[in-house]
Amino acid sequence: MSITIEKAREKISINPNSLDSWNILIKDAQERPIEEARLFFEQLVTQFPTCGKYWKAYIEEELLHKNFDQVEKLFERCLNNILSIDLWKCFLNYLKESKSHLEDFNKIMIQAYDSAVQKIGLDVMSFSVWLEYLNFLKSLDLNINNQNDKLTLYESVRRIYQMALENPIGNIDQIWKDYCAFETQVNPTNAKNLIDRASREFQNVKKVSKELESVTRPLDRNLPALNLEYPIDEEEDIRQLHAWKRFILWEKQNPLKLADHRAVMRRVIFAYEQSFLCMAYHSDLWHEAACYLINQKESLKQLGTLSDQVILEVTETAAVSLYERAINSFMKNNSLTHLAYTDFEESRGNIKKVYEIFEKYLAQERADQPTLVWIHYIFLVRRNEDIIAARKLFKRARQDSRINYHLFIANALLEYFHTKDKAVGFNIFHLGAKKFSHEPEYMLAFIKYMSHLNEDNNVRVLFERILSTDDIPAYKSNEIWSEFLKFECAVGDLASILKVDKKRLKVFESIQNNPLSDVTQSSLMIDRYKYLDLLPSNSNELKSMGYKNVRGQYNASSQATTMANLSAIFSNNVSISQAELAAVAANELKRSKYPIPDISQMMPFKPVRNILPGMMHSIAGGVFPFPPAVTELVKRLPPPNTYEGPFVIIDELIRKFQESEIVEDFQPLYIHINGEPIREFEHLISGPIISHKRAFANAGSDDEDTKKGKSMDIYKQRQYKKLIQK
């Protein structure tokens, strides 16, 4: 085993998303016996179950070894779920080669082509499949003698042409030309009427097909679905996700202006299905697809042309099927998809199914958010049964070793707001404190709960007990001390306030040099006097004092300014939504400690290898860039670092040009060879030029006596003449 193969396997064991390593192993497997290769390809398609490229490689490997039974089993596993053009073409080619000897071969191929265009006929790249289908049908005409059978065949061909011309696919002009030729050939009498009738719709589809090609151009359809639990190229992943969402949004806008709402739905769901091939680990796509189906229920009812049963099948039943696919495959460990599914089933009144979904998720060892799902499960039981059933479920949840303190907070507040019993909530908080007393967030929630009960003495006792223990390190207790001080400012006297302030200062003096602590004496003083987002100094003074918890210093206007600046940068280069822009702006404001420059006036940096003069933007105090014409010339010249001299003194060269006299009557220079005047260099090109390369017709010849042209080297010619004279 080579070192490269071993490294690739080691890398995949660490990061299964390493596509380069998988490609190395694919090449290695193709050189191994089929038994070993099959084990590897099973591992490959298990890791990337929606990648048509990898399934095709697996099938071709089995075909190479004539394992036709295995090939058909593989097609059964992947063909209906993977909307891959290449995979379907591989299937059609397999049928042509392996089934051509059967009597019902034509029937098999027609059924296969029908399935293909039903599955992938909406794809913008499906031109070749449509064309193959049409050519296959037209080839049957040669074997049909009965006129009625021919007419039936022509109707089938016409139907497929019309189906193809309804879809905005690439190279649709070619199909239109073939259709016009077909109608002219088989029905010259009515051909013009049929073509004119279809022409108007074709022009609209042709226009939309160009838009669709533009929308789908950024999509990388060969990219397999990458598991987000492992490292990925985040920028490329986000770029592809946004490109798929733009494509789906474009389909939702019904650019074809279809009157049939079900046809629009079919195109939108097809777009979602295509996105799942590459973005299957993104839960938002699954949720958006299900919501789209559910929301179409009212639109279909308004049409009044479909029965309630049909509407239910194409909306809610389809959404259930989609959710089931998600939670049984890529979203198996995803809490968001499970919770959305439970809400949908609860809205339909299917409570038993909701319980099954919760239990199935919580039974998994790798569930990503078990505490959150337990909380929503308890809320559901309280809504649909009673508080007693919710308490029993809470008891079950406490036995789960994966839970954290949020479960106790949620149940304590649930008991308090539902039963109005303060003691039950206190008991739950007290029970959780035995396990999570080291969590500052949990103890803060406990304190706030007690504060709302208006039991001042109990709150003070709780503060003293928390701050007197070593469960929470001093450098993590700042928020608790702040709450204690805030509490005393609200309900205590000045002596109590100063007492707490003195204790707090003493604690933080002992950790002032702790690198994990950002608390200073100034920040403690500011925390004492602030109220909500009102601070005792302006933002500049707070920054100079090193105060970091400055709330409200970045108001709406500053955020709007930052968003405007970012919009100026992204508008021409990157497609980005307002929500993403706001997130970027908030992050910029959060990171900034100093005044932010007006970046709208800046020019985006574009890295260039071997940068040429004039390609950089002008900088204040520097040189101006070249004029456009000169810049274009400089770009065509070799980079300066490729030239090492001698360097020409430009001023001297120009001066020489200016001083030189230009002869008006130019006479060409002649030299004499063998007494004949010949223009300079003319003798070198006067004879026929014979290429040193072999002629195409003589490419395989080994004859070394092929004549060569005269040497173009004057020095060699002179040496040759001297030898002759001697």
Q: What can you see in these coordinates?
A:
With 726 residues, the chain is an all-alpha fold. Among the domains are: 3-216, Tetratricopeptide repeat domain (Serine Threonine Protein Phosphatase 5, Tetratricopeptide repeat); 224-331, no CATH class; 556-601; 605-660, no CATH class. It has 33 helices and 2 strands. It has helices at residues 3-14, 19-29, 34-47, 52-64, 68-78, 85-98, 105-120, 127-139, 147-165, 172-186, 191-216, 234-252, 261-279, 283-303, 308-327, 335-347, 351-362, 370-384, 387-398, 406-419, 422-436, 440-452, 456-468, 478-491, 494-509, 521-529, 539-544, 556-570, 578-591, 628-636, 650-659, 682-685, 714-725; strands at residues 670-673, 676-679. A two-stranded antiparallel sheet has the order 1-2. The protein is extended and about 115 Å long. Residues 550-560, 568-575, 618-622 and 680-709 have low confidence and may be disordered.
